[in-house]
Task: inverse folding
């Protein structure tokens, strides 16, 4: 087993990392103080620059202007981008657009690709993905109330979604709705493309998260469909196969999140170490880093991040070599394990910063607020643990 990186990959990862550290991290104070809106112009320019440098869309297929990196290399790049909250967006691989691009690439027909995939892949528009509903358990996607009824040559859509990330400003919503209520549970839903300027589609509000209302790409929208009509041709993929499409989208989406979280963990560890080594806690000049307790945290964080990184890269390798289905448990394991590491590392880094940690003068409070949800979205911890345990009980219990 060879863990070394070839020089080309190492140089590529360094390019991404340096761009993030040199160009994006300096924008953080403004992001944390004023939110994303005043930065949108600067970010648009940076996206153009990244495209010019040939660094756009590390995981996007080459035919759509991306670099088409394999999943392992993308994992390394994604960790570099995760070091700053702006990283993935500036490089054109942010959620939910990245997952939506993959879905359109796999299932859209030629007209749909022309209308949506091209503009989305080039970063000209944003999109959102509407599956979860406030009145139904999102952990079980078989429970949906939003309906799309085929009347003549139109789908007539009624219902509500929430936690539709990035709905604020999105041009397209990929909607999961019940199209065949009489079919067996796994075949009731289909996916439909809904342009957000369609009459009857409405963004009701952006949901406040822990005292903060995100905007634009950092928003989580509550959206409403009231007799919203789109052409029958807006069906994405086969009718009744919404769940299959959702799995195809969520599988890779989960590993992408884990890869991004590694960047957050590594950055938080670096902030923690620097603070511990500079903060004096006694008149004699004793520093936080002189405390055995703090040293223990530093070592534990480093070990947990390393374990998480190896697990993520191994899961990526399994997906590439054995396929997404065979790697289901690997993906479930990283989903809950890395989310746990993320939470512990950010929490310890914040604790080491004391009062400063809960202010918006470092990025840690942003991580703490925005990333607590890692243990909930794309399947809560418990659901992934149950699914791993179920298969282990089948194979190991004898
Ligand atoms: C920040 C954020 C962004 C999101 N973005 C999107 C998006 O873009 N599009 C979208 O459609 N959805 C999105 N979601 C929704 C997300 O996928 C759901 O929140 C998630 O699936 C959980 O569903 P729920 O919130 O309804 O919780 P519930 O299903 O009500 O579950 C609540 C809790 O119960 C426990 N639980 C659930 N099922 C079981 C079980 N079988 N056994 C044991 N315990 C269980 C878990 O601890 C879980 O956290 C987002 C959510 C968040 C927080």
Result:
């Amino acid at each position: 087993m060879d863990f070394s990186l070839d020089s080309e990959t190492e140089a590529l990862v360094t390019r991404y990392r340096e761009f993030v550290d040199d160009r994006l991290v300096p924008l953080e104070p403004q992001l944390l103080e004023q939110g994303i809106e005043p930065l949108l112009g600067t970010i648009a320019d940076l996206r153009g620059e990244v495209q010019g440098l040939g660094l756009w869309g590390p995981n996007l297929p080459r035919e759509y202007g991306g670099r088409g990196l394999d999943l392992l290399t993308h994992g390394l790049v994604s960790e570099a981008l995760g070091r700053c909250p702006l990283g993935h967006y500036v490089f054109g691989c942010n959620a939910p657009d990245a997952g939506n691009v993959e879905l359109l690439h796999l299932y859209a027909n030629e007209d749909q690709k022309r209308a949506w995939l091209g503009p989305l892949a080039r970063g000209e528009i944003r999109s959102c993905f509407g599956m979860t509903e406030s009145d139904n358990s999102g952990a079980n996607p078989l429970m949906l109330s939003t309906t799309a009824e085929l009347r003549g040559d139109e789908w007539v859509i009624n219902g509500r979604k929430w936690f539709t990330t990035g709905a604020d400003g999105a041009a397209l919503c990929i909607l999961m709705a019940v199209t065949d209520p009489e079919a067996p549970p796994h075949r009731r839903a289909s996916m439909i493309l809904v342009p957000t300027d369609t009459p009857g589609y409405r963004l009701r509000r952006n949901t406040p998260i822990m005292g903060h209302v995100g905007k634009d790409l950092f928003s989580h929208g509550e959206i409403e469909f009231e007799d919203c009509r789109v052409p029958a041709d807006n069906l994405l993929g086969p009718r009744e196969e919404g769940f299959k499409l959702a799995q195809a989208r969520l599988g890779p989406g989960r590993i992408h999140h884990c890869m991004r979280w590694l960047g957050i963990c590594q950055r938080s560890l670096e902030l923690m170490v620097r603070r511990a080594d500079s903060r004096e806690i006694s008149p004699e000049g004793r520093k936080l880093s002189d405390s055995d307790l703090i040293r223990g945290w530093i070592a534990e964080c480093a070990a947990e991040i390393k374990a998480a990184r190896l697990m993520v890269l191994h899961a990526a390798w399994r997906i590439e070599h054995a396929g997404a289905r065979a790697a289901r448990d690997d993906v479930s394991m990283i989903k809950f394990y890395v989310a746990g590491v993320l939470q512990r590392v950010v929490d310890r880094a914040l604790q080491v910063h004391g009062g400063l940690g809960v202010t918006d003068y470092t990025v840690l409070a942003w991580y703490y607020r925005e990333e607590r949800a890692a243990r909930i979205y794309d399947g809560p911890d418990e659901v992934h643990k149950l699914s791993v345990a179920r298969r282990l009980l089948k194979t190991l219990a004898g």
The chain has a mean pLDDT of 96. The chain has 13 helices and ten strands. The pocket of flavin-adenine dinucleotide is lined by residues 96, 129-132, 137-139, 163-165, 220, 373, 376-378, 380, 382-383, 386 (CB under 6 Å).
